[in-house]
Amino acid sequence: MARWPNAAIADTGAAMVQAIRSTRGSFSRLAQRLRGKPDVALQMSAAFAAFMPPQMDLPSSATAAPSALHPTSESASRPVAEGDAPTQRYRAIWLSDIHLGTPGCQATYLLDFLKHNDSDVLYLVGDIIDGWQLRRGWYWPQSHNDVVQKLLRKARKGTEVIYVPGNHDEAARQFDGMAFGDITVREDTVHVTATGKRLWVVHGDLFDGVVQHAKWLAHLGDSLYTMILALNRHFNRIRARLGFDYWSLSQYLKHQVKNAVSYINSFEHAMVDEARRRGCDGVVCGHIHKAEIREVDGQLYCNDGDWVESLSALVETMEGELKIVYWTTLIDPPEPVSRRRRRSATVAA
């Protein structure tokens, strides 16, 4: 497997940011104990099996258009309409850092986004399933399984779905070039926009010095980040009760740190340098949980964000315009649990 240079990233700022950026573990185990669930350490293959057809077993273990150079960020928040809202069609959608298998995953918002947005090509740009968390303890609610099934259903209905693994789901990299359930796994790939712009698509963890050279620190940071996300969830429950949209407290805190800004700038320069070396006009990545579209050193840098903090996706319109879409308001909110229980009881009676 190829390893790319990352000298610009391996510094103390990177260590600190990755420690904040990567997390998810001890809170889940504590919650499992409080619920009386056994602490069963299931293997990553069980999670990846959700992407496989039933009969398959897993092995063991050009010039940019003006709109592209000056893209817009678009909030997808809008009032709930009566009946089903219309589906928005795009040429391509990029999603990353979903982190299925963790309490911080915003599966309900992602399902709502997938329901109301279609595309010719859908790129899953790494950290879709969080293998780090699943190795610590099993966490897989029904909503996470619904996300997997929704992705498989889109693939069956004609959407080209390309899965580019990241560091949290690196186990899938061994299946580079294979297709599972109409989803193709690629370590990296190139997307050509409607305007002829070549964009290198990769998760980005191979340019993170902490992940590559101090993995123990990345795992330690994973636990710290879990605590921040737990606080973020409670904070947004209060906001929701007060009628406010989702807002990421964890992302706000992270980007107030001066070293975090320095790390992100170094990451962006390293990514576009490699894209240029590969003969591309820009890069699309994830990994650092900060949605962005901007020009860096004459190259187009696009980061699609994440689905634990920013609830964002990168999209290409049919005209070739690139946008960041934030999905912070549900079009079809789920019914409250109490209402579902009352309805079920009525049907049973």
From TrEMBL:
Residues 59-73 have a biased composition (Low complexity). One of its GO terms (cellular component) is membrane. Keywords: Cell inner membrane, Cell membrane, Manganese, Membrane, Metal-binding. Residues 93-290 form the Calcineurin-like phosphoesterase domain. CDD domains: MPP_YbbF-LpxH. One of its GO terms (biological process) is lipid A biosynthetic process. Residues 59-83 are annotated as: Disordered. GO terms for molecular function: metal ion binding; UDP-2,3-diacylglucosamine hydrolase activity. This is UDP-2,3-diacylglucosamine pyrophosphatase LpxH. The lineage of its organism: Bacteria, Pseudomonadati, Pseudomonadota, Betaproteobacteria, Burkholderiales.
